[in-house]
Amino acid sequence: MARRRVSMRKIREILRLHEECRLTNRQIAKALNISRPVVGQYLADLKASKLTYEEVTRMSDDELMRIFETKKAKESENYRILSQRFPYFAREIKKKGVTLYLLWQEYKKEYPEGYGYSRFCYHFQIERALSPLSMHIEHKAGEKMFVDYTGKKMRIYDKLSEKEIEVEVFVAILAASQITYAEATLSQRKDD
Questions:
Q1: What's the rounded Cα separation, in Å, for the pair 12 and 64?
Q2: Nearest Cα to 63, choosing from 46, 44, 41, 75?
Q3: Cα distance between residue 180 and residue 192, in whole Å
Q4: Quick one: which H or E segment has residue 145?
Q5: What is the pLDDT of residues 106-151, one digit of tens each?
Q6: How far apart, in Å, are the Cα atoms of 97 and each of 59, 93, 119, 136?
Q7: Contact 165, 156 (CB under 8 A)
């Protein structure tokens, strides 16, 4: 059964309480409000990695995450096959109209014995989280708004003419709050 995800802060605290405070697994579980088997599994993973506590304290969160989250998955043949396709998935997901579900369906056609959709998404998101190319940008409230028309057109039904009309979709997003506004317009002209 898959382990419930625990934050990196809690993982580091599990290791600290075990090594520095010499608490039992039960005491650590109670202090951090997580189950005792989860504590035991993280400690067993640390022991299996043959890293010392001092080495772990000097590691970045990404390096530590690689030890705990992908250790077992990398051992399986399914993960090896899936991980070879990550660069392809990363390119494809950027294309218009491509979703994780479509990529998963393509993967399952090629590898019927592969992961189910939820595990596929989990591994893909872990891989994305470990990608070094990411940046968080802080925005001041009310300072910026991003606007554009979507690439795909939608259709609406006009009751008066009893015809379907192809419309453009205008989208605006406030940078700080991520509040989104969308509206269908007849064209992309300034008047609309």
A1: 9
A2: 46
A3: 18
A4: strand 145-149
A5: 999 998 888 889 888 888 888 877 666 556 677 788 888 888 888 8
A6: 38, 8, 22, 25
A7: yes
